[in-house]
Amino acid sequence: MNKIALYFIFIFALCAGNALAQRPTQNIDPEKLQAARIAFITSRIDLKPEQAEKFWPIFNQYTEQREATMKSMSGLNRGIESISEEEAKSRIQKRLQLQQKMLDDEKAFINEVSKVITSKQVLMLNNIARDFNRHIYQRQRGSTN
Fold it and tell me: In this structure, what DSSP letter does residue 111 have?
């Protein structure tokens, strides 16, 4: 039961990070944002050039898969006021399947990326997306004040 609770907390943290990342930004160039994200993660986990060359394709593929799954999960919440009880049960099952897919994708990512970076670097990745979103938000607030 403890592992399941931890996985749900992790998934919730990812959802919260994605929600922050999806807020409309004012005058932010997507290319500059991506470059800032790469620099932030690279410096935070101290990626060496040879690691970075192999890390980024793996990380980007995982991120794309996770975002697609999150989008599918958010679609399950549309129109819930007018669905039948059977449809609600179906959507709950679909959500659980998508959460399991996210967990399976994360396990595959960790397995693959562990061949490129250290276990300590892998652990450091857990909070980096949220930290980056917070960093961008704070910079954005600072530049508008």
Answer: H
Torsion angles phi and psi, residue 32, rounded to 5? -65, -40
Task: Residue 122: count other Cβ atoms within 10 Å of its Cβ.
Answer: 15
Instruction: Give pTM, 2 decimals.
Output: 0.71
Burial class from Cβ neighbours inside 10 Å (0-12, 13-18, 19+) for residue 117 reads buried
Q: Which residues contact 91 (CB under 8 A, 6 or more apart)?
A: 76, 80, 83
Does position 8 have pLDDT exceeding 50, yes or no?
no
Contacts of 109 (CB under 8 A, 6+ apart): 58, 59, 62
pLDDT in tens, 30-83: 888 889 889 999 999 999 999 999 999 999 999 999 999 999 999 998 998 999
